[in-house]
């Protein structure tokens, strides 16, 4: 069975009015697709509006400082997306004279772009017949056709990509791709799908076999690790604090944070105080240490949960180096730090 025509008809009647659907400009489509990776539309749309307003062309994005890009991205998470976006913008401007690549094979070479994103841009902007496969597509196709091949395997990707490629309307590839993504996002949802309104409820294998909640199949991933973060928030007499830039390739690369003490488990006041006094930052200062939050804030990332406490260090003198309280919000920080800053109200 080929569901293409029904899917497009449903989409025509039910599609949402979203800003990136009113353009075929590859720069804007690229921005929207990168922002919407791992992000729902309701959360991503304000970021899309901010990025297109602040960086209306790929030249504007390429010429921006990374700190500015990361600050605008703050709160979206998966910050490698922003760094890759910025790097690719520079590549397009410097190596391609600002002309966005116009084929799937060229687009997928951009940093941070995979098969799904390249397919979306190639079909929407350049009318290429290349099907998208994302979480929404996996879910819809696995249920309608009753496919139980794990989606997070190479075999699963190939099977679903082949099926989607067979179904795509060669005359309307952009419409088909957007239709199947919209269908998965709005009708064939992960939980409580609207089967009564579904145009495929008479042929859906998962509905007939009552296995909707079992599909799609995903193999269990790596066990989530627990980490214990202790952020040290300095408060000096001259209204300064300390923020440090994270380096390396770990989480939050190039974002700013308060000095961090990582422990193997939840640490006592005595242990943290001892470690704080040994930090070069505070040597020569008389300090008073207090705990801001008795209960750890649990920040959940894909493969790790951060059990976080904020410790306040009051200094009885000035900080020669440091950041004025009024300037803290100029720095891009992880949402965990951003929430603290907002609540603490320096």
TrEMBL record:
Database matches in CDD domains: ENDO3c, NUDIX_DNA_Glycosylase_C-MutY
One Pfam family it belongs to: HhH-GPD
Top-level EC class: hydrolase
EC nos: 3.2.2.31
Domain (HhH-GPD): residue spans on this chain: 35-186
Iron found in the keyword field: yes
The reaction(s) this protein catalyses: Hydrolyzes free adenine bases from 7,8-dihydro-8-oxoguanine:adenine mismatched double-stranded DNA, leaving an apurinic site
Entry keywords, A to Z: 4Fe-4S, DNA damage, DNA repair, Glycosidase, Hydrolase, Iron, Iron-sulfur, Metal-binding
Essential cofactor(s): [4Fe-4S] cluster
Free-text cofactor note: Binds 1 [4Fe-4S] cluster.
SUPFAM superfamilies xref list: DNA-glycosylase (SSF48150), Nudix (SSF55811)
Family: Belongs to the Nth/MutY family.
Function summary: Adenine glycosylase active on G-A mispairs. MutY also corrects error-prone DNA synthesis past GO lesions which are due to the oxidatively damaged form of guanine: 7,8-dihydro-8-oxoguanine (8-oxo-dGTP).
Official protein name in the record: Adenine DNA glycosylase
Annotated source species: Olleya sediminilitoris
Chain's gene name: mutY
